[in-house]
Amino acid sequence: MSSIYIETNNENHLTVEEYVRYIRIKENIQQLLDSANLQEVLRNSEESIRGLTIDLIVKFSVNK
């Protein structure tokens, strides 16, 4: 079964101002994923080939 993951790494290295902007960005991306109905698209794609599994990972990483 398809899945969508959002992973974050090192967000605790951000300043308060950066963290507020980061949260807004993360929310915007989540809204995009929801509005694009990606879960349904992934599910339909998996049904087209027996045994196919699709995982979409959105990874946020702060390298400071």
Question: What would you note in describing this structure?
Answer:
This protein has 64 residues and is of the alpha+beta class. 48% of the residues lie in helices and 22% in strands. The protein has two helices and two strands; from the N terminus they run βααβ. A two-stranded parallel sheet has the order 1-2. The longest helix has 20 residues, at 16-35. It is elongated. The mean pLDDT is 90.
What sort of overall outline do the alpha carbons produce when their principal axes are compared?
elongated
Quote the beta fraction.
15-25%
Q: Please, how many helices?
A: 2
Q: Would you count the extended β strands for me?
A: 2
Largest sheet: 2 strands, parallel
- For the largest sheet, list the strands in their spatial order: 1-2
> Low-confidence parts lasting 5 or more residues at pLDDT below 50?
none
Q: Percentage of helical residues?
A: 40-55%
Concise summary:
This protein is an alpha+beta fold and about 60 residues long.
Give the helices and strands, then pairings.
Blueprint: E1 3-9, H1 16-35, H2 38-48, E2 55-61
Parallel strand pairs: 1-2
Characteristic terms for this protein:
64 residues; alpha+beta; elongated
